[in-house]
Structures are given as C-alpha cells and as structure tokens.
Sequence to fold (476 residues):
Amino acid sequence: MQISEIELQQLVSKIVNQTIQKEDSSILDESECISLTDYKDGIFEKMEDAIDAAEKAKQQFSQYTIKDRQRFIESIKKWTLKEKYDLAKRVVEETGLGNYEDKIKKHELAARTPGTELLETKAQSGDTGLAIIEEAPFGVIGATTPVTNPSETVISNTIGMLAAGNTVVFNVHPSSKEVCAYTVSQINKLIVNLGGPKNLITMVKNPTMESLNVMARCPKVNMLVGTGGPGLVKALLSSGKKAIGAGAGNPPVVVDETANIKKAAADIITGHSFDNNTVCILEKEVFVVDKVANELIETMIHEGAYLAEGKTIDALKALITIEDQDGFHVKKEWVGQDPNKYLDALNIPYTQKPKCIICETSFEHPFVQLELLMPILPIVRVDSFRQGVDYAILAEHGNRHTAICHSQNIDNITYYAKAINTTIFVKNAPSLAGIGVDSESVVSFTIAGPTGEGITTAKDYTRKRHCVLVDGFRII
Ligand code: NAD
Fold:
C-alpha cells in the first residue's frame, strides 16, 4: 500500500500532537505528583518515586532552552556562595569530617563548576552536505556522592548534569543525608521560583545499599555516575549501564634534587592539609631523593607540620589502623580529624596546633599503602628520581587518579607523567591546582580515573548526536 504525501503529513502531525498533549499533561498533572509518597522539594521516601519524579521532570526539562538551563545554574551558583557558611557548618556538624574554614572554600569551588559554556556543537560540511554533532542529554542520571564532599558534590554534579539537559536522582552517603536533602530541596525551590520544572534533582530520604541497587538496576535511569570508594565504583561499573566511575586515589608526590625545595615543602603542606586531607586528589605520600630529604622535612616543619618519630609513629599506626588476615585497614573514626586530635589521643605535647603530622617511613608502611584521608603524611627517602617514580606507581595502586611532581628537570617531569598516566598530574604546585585552585584547570568534584573521563564536566554527561543532512548534489 502506498501512502500519499498528504496522508503522511497528517500522520506525522497526529503523532506530534499526541506527543505534545502527553508532554503538556505531564506538566499540568499535579495530582500525579502529589500522589507520590512524601513529596517535598525533591526528597522521596522510596527510590522508585525519586526516579519516577526525575523521569517526569526530564520530559518537561526538554522543553526548556539552553539559556534557561544556564539561568538555573547561575542561581544555584549565587545561592551556594551566599549559603557557603551555613552549608559548611551543616557538613562539619553532620559528618564530623574536615574543618569549617576549608569546607567554606570547597563550596566556593563547587560554585565555580562550569555549566553550559562547555557544550559545543561541531559541524562538518562537504560535497554531499552537512553533519552536525550535538551534545544531547543522556536522560536521568543516577549519582552517588561521598561523605567526604557531600553537598559540594551534589552542587557540582547538579551544575554539570543540568547544564547538559539531564535530570538527576541522588543516592547520597547516609552519613550526610541531612545536608544533602537540604541542598537538594533548596536547589529545587530556586529552580521552581525561576519558572523551571519540579524535581530536576531528587534523592531518597534514607539512602541504603538497597536504594543504590534499585537506582543501578532501574531501566528509567540512563546513566550512572559514582563518586566514592572502590566498592561503589565496582558495583556501578558492573550494572551493564553507561557508567562514570570516580573512585579512590592515593596521590603520590615525587620530589627530586632539582626542585625548589622551599616551594615544594610549602605546596605539599598546603595541599595535604586542606580539609584535614579528606579530598581524593590531595597529597597522600612523598618520595624524595635522599640528597634533599632533610631540607624538605625541615622546611615542612617550618611550614607548620609536626614531625612524628620513632615510637610515636608506631603509636599512631596502632591508633588509626587495624590489622586482620587481609592486612591493615583504616579506622573510619579517625578519617578527616584535626591534626592535634591524633597527638592529644597519644598524649603527645605540641607547642602550636600543627597543620599536619609528617613522619619518615619505609615504602611498605601502611601509611604509604593505604588511602588514609587523614592529615598524616608519610615521607620515604629514595636513591634516585626513577626509584621515586617506581614507588609512586606502586603506591598509586593503578587508580589512575592524581600524581604530583616537584622538579625543574623537564625530562624527569615528562617521564613521571607518562609512566604513572594519572587523570590529574600536577607539576610544581599543590595538588589542589588539579581542580582549578589558582590554576587553569576546570573545577569538578567527580574525577573519573577508572573510566577515563578525567575531570568530569557537562560534556561528559551528554550523548553525541550526529545529525546528517545530505544535499541534493546528484540529480537522480
Ligand atoms: P564510599 O564508597 O564509602 O561511599 C560512597 C557511596 O557509595 C555512598 O553513597 C555509599 O553508601 C555507597 N557505597 C559504598 N560502598 C558500596 C558498595 N560496596 N556497593 C555499593 N555502594 C556502596 O566512599 P566515601 O567514604 O563516602 O568517600 C570516600 C572515598 O571516595 C575515598 O576513597 C575517596 O578517594 C573517594 N572519592 C573519590 C572522588 C573522585 O572524584 N574520584 C571524589 C571524592 C571521594
């Protein structure tokens, strides 16, 4: 049966009208929204409801322009900067990790996450017409957030994911659910006040492993973004969905004899002690060429570090780690505490509150091998730069996360960068430069080492859409 052109147009307009009616009804159908369990500005009792709401919001969001997205993002950024003191206080009180001053800085950083300005359309033209490659939304993104940067990751992920036109359902770390729920609900209010759809971001009120599994399995969730430890990343990568894995790090620093030692010591202490070392990109262990090791350690003490020696190192090890048949593990209750707390617990006197604790150890020591996330920095002497790089690669455990180098020797720097092949490689600066602190790098709280997207931004939350127009070049 042949279909005429008029019949074809009627059919197309019928389908388009049906779609518009369906989308209109989804905007106006308030009753359906209210029937969802415990609806409150994006916070839901059940993960299934949080996903349904984000999916519904996705259909509405597709009718908004990229300018609208940026309008919402600008308002989220302004709100974050205005509320940074309150957010920092809430995070410290609820999680008991890090310190208030640096949590403020982290929120300032989250507010600098880039939005729609990073999206780009590429075009190729030729004899046969035109191909346009657009960055289109992926759909509903299921995102997890770590206890170490809770509201900061919610804000930063929201900016990047909404910029790309997606909606988001969060399964946050349970120990940060209050501050995350506050952040999610405030952001939703801002967007609705600006005329945007409800529930562009949602979360389950009481996140659990079960709610995370529901999110990972639900077909309505189109992409997973996991920011957290190795267990989480492994679980999400085995879901069978498109997944971005932003996992653990254990960033090594290598310092050679050509480095500006005074600057290297200051930079290492600045990076390492930030927020009691609760950020995945921060300096976690140092390999220094023997020739300059004493000078580095002395300058670090001058910069505010406390040097632990001899039996104090063993006492620290007993305090913050536990050993079983699988080896040493970090005692969670000691993650991200103020440096003086460790010394107080061991009855060690100190003249002024230290910025961090440094100590000389062997390469095999658990302080080097474990991702402590504490202001305790092991330092290992090495015979040569090459040995330092070999150790750095082993200590990084293939996370492909972050590495830092202090050297004036370009060959050494290049060798190290290529050999360790991490997502972030910082040269002659604090690790924080890797995520845009006093540097040209972009800001993000989701650094995807295992899946290789690197410092994730709006672009990583898109699917590439090739629109191909074939010109009437050949006359048939
Ligand atoms: P975490 O892995 O304990 O928790 C993160 C989230 O995953 C939480 O929502 C938690 O409930 C869930 N989860 C934990 N284990 C799981 C498992 N086996 N299966 C399924 N879900 C699981 O991490 P955390 O303690 O909140 O955060 C610290 C870790 O996150 C560190 O290892 C740090 O390096 C890493 N981190 C990485 C980045 C990055 O961008 N790469 C950023 C921040 C933190």
The radius of gyration is 25 Å.
